Amino acid sequence: MSDKQDTHVRVWRVSLDSPSGIMLRPNTLTLIGSRNNFIHLDDSSVSISADTLNITTDPMNIKKGILFAEQMGFLQMLPSSITMPIANVAPNIPGKGMVKGIGASLPVLAAMGI
Asked: What does the pLDDT look like over 36-91, one tens digit per residue?
């Protein structure tokens, strides 16, 4: 893209003095709720700035630090003690899907002589 195209910015607001709006650039989208609350999307990242963040999803879909996922809701209701510990998180192996994909492509690589 040329430098001239990078300067194009579109902003949509309900009124001129409204703090919220949508800002659109060639490679960037920003949803603005207020000065401190916004979602910014570009080619390489997603940024969320919020006073409070609410996520509605199943607990198993929330990953903490890539390595741990929440257990099912029922297991969290069971009491945990020293004599009978019940884990609240399950290990989540980041490369699990990648290893499965490599295993599926091995016959193709072998046929190519690689």
From this structure: 899 999 988 888 988 888 878 776 676 666 677 776 667 667 777 888 777 777 77
Structural contact between residues 22 and 32, judged by C-beta atoms closer than 8 angstroms:
yes
Of 26, 34, 28, nearest in space to 5 by CA: 26
Residue bearing tokens 């492509």: 105
Integer Cα distance of 73 and 32 in angstroms:
34
Residues 6+ apart with CB under 8 A from 59: 70, 71, 72, 73, 76
The model carries a pTM of 0.47
What are φ and ψ of residue 89, in 5° steps? -130, 150
Q: Transcribe 68-100 into DSSP letters.
A: EEEPPHHHHHS---SSS---SEEE--TTHHHHH
Tokens 């209701």 found at? 77
